[in-house]
C-alpha cells in the first residue's frame, strides 16, 4: 500500500472525530490523536473500529492501546495487513 494512500485513508477516518481542525490541516506521522487532534477517548475507539472496517483487519487490545499517533496507527495497520 502506498504511503500517501494510507495517510489519506487514515485522515479521512480521523477527520469526523478531530475537534482541532487546524491540527487536522497539519495531519502527519507525528500527529497525536488525543493531544494534537483532540479526539476524545470514546471517539478513539470509533476510529479503531473504522480502521478495522476500512482495512478489513482486527486490532487487538494491546495494539489498540499503542495506537496514539498517526505513525503508530500506520505501523499497526501494516502489521495486521501482513498477518492476513
Could you provide a short overview of the structure?
It comes from Salegentibacter flavus. Residues 4-81 form the Carrier domain. It contains 5 helices and no strands.
List the helices and strands and how they pair.
Blueprint: H1 3-14, H2 21-25, H3 41-55, H4 61-65, H5 70-83
Helix pairs in contact: 1-3
Characterize the structure shown.
- The chain is mostly helical.
- It has a single domain (3-83), classed as ACP-like (Non-ribosomal Peptide Synthetase Peptidyl Carrier Protein, Chain A, Orthogonal Bundle).
- The protein is 61% helix and 0% strand.
- The protein has helices spanning 3-14, 21-25, 41-55, 61-65, 70-83.
- α1 crosses α3.
- It is globular.
- The model has no long low-confidence stretch (mean pLDDT 95).
Q: Classify the fold: give the CATH topology.
A: Non-ribosomal Peptide Synthetase Peptidyl Carrier Protein, Chain A
Give the number of DSSP strands: 0
How many angstroms does the end-to-end distance come to?
A: 14 Å
| Overall 3D form | globular
The second-level CATH architecture is Orthogonal Bundle
SSE pattern: HHHHH
For this structure, what is the CATH homologous superfamily?
ACP-like
Rounded average pLDDT:
95
> Oligomerization state of this entry?
single chain
Tally the helices.
Answer: 5
